[in-house]
Write a structure and sequence with these properties.
The chain folds into two domains: 22-100, no CATH class; 111-288, no CATH class. 28% of the residues lie in helices and 21% in strands. The protein has helices at 3-16, 26-62, 81-86, 116-131, 276-283, and strands at 156-165, 168-181, 184-193, 215-221, 224-230, 241-246, 252-258. Strands 1-2-3-7-6-5-4 form a seven-stranded antiparallel beta sheet, covered by helices on one side. A hairpin with a 5-residue loop joins strand 6 and strand 7 (252-258). Residues 1-10 have a biased composition (Basic and acidic residues). Residues 80-111 have a biased composition (Polar residues).
Length: 291
């Protein structure tokens, strides 16, 4: 077969083949538009879902389950998301869920020392108070109260932590005994406050310790100014008379006496165990100036 015969055969074969349909760009463009719309819908749906998740997380952080609305956030009014992000944090001084526990010295669980040197100091005050009881009186250690104090011991001592001032711990050591003579029962108490606390003044200018204020008279004991307060009838709280003295280092000593024991049904003594001068001397006695 020469070149002319080959060309004739090719033309014959092409003439016998059906003609393809003409090209049309419409279907192609329609398919492209549908694909673009589908991608936009997918992006929009994903963005909305992310926004919903972000808002839900923000609300969950601000308003824990069962806690109510957070300060500054009005959930019912539907605050904008920007307001939510602005209220997620608050100054530590304004929001606190921790309760401050009191700090007691020496491992104590409250103000009262139940062992150690402070406890021993309270016991010392009791020992010295009993040693100062006038002749003819007794201080039974097994006497218990009646009336409002039914069953309570009538002989006690205590070491109380008052506070810390300028780095100095201030304590009050106290003792209380029932004085008995015959059938009568009276009362004698002492309190020693260590230096460093608030309050100034000597004699009648020093701060009172017990209630039942009365007429104050200064008594000189070896040149020391001692306050003696006598409570008039009707103005008495628990003591008929008390004396107070401030040592040079600031230690405060108070001694109180009563002819009966308040809040009990015991009969009273015939009179006070100490005169005003004797009570003042007891308050200024070095025995209560604890080192």
């Amino acid at each position: 077969m020469n070149e002319h015969e080959f060309r004739d055969a090719l033309r014959t074969n092409m003439s016998a083949t059906p003609e393809p349909p003409p090209m049309n760009e419409g279907p192609v463009l329609d398919a492209a538009r549908r694909d673009r719309r589908r991608r936009r819908a997918m992006w929009a749906g994903g963005g909305s879902a992310a926004a919903v998740v972000a808002i839900a997380v923000g609300v969950a952080v601000l308003v824990p389950s069962g806690s109510g609305d957070a300060p500054g956030l009005n959930v019912a009014a539907g605050q904008p998301s920007v307001s939510v992000t602005q209220t997620t944090e608050a100054p530590s001084s304004a929001v606190s869920t921790e309760e401050t526990e009191p700090s007691w010295p020496n491992g104590q669980t409250d103000r009262t020392a139940t062992e150690g040197p402070e406890y021993d100091a309270g016991m010392t005050v009791l020992t010295e108070l009993e040693a100062a009881v006038p002749a003819g009186y007794e201080t039974p250690d097994d006497l218990v109260g009646t009336g409002d104090l039914a069953g309570s011991p009538m002989r006690t001592h205590q070491a109380n932590y008052d506070d810390t001032f300028d780095g100095v711990e201030v304590w009050t050591y106290s003792a209380d005994v029932a004085l008995t003579k015959g059938d009568g029962v009276g009362r004698l108490s002492a309190a020693v406050r260590t230096p460093g606390g608030p309050g100034v003044g000597e004699g009648c200018d020093m701060p009172p310790y017990w209630g039942g204020m009365g007429d104050c008279t200064e008594v000189l004991v070896d040149g020391k100014r001692v306050a003696v307060v006598t409570v008039p009838p009707g103005g008495r709280d628990q003591f008929d008379q008390w004396a107070g003295y401030r040592h040079e280092d600031g230690t405060l000593v108070y001694v109180g006496q009563a002819a009966d024991r308040a809040f009990t049904n015991f009969p009273a003594l015939d009179g006070l165990p100490f005169t005003a001068e004797q009570l003042a001397a007891l308050a200024a006695d070095p025995r209560f100036h604890l080192d």
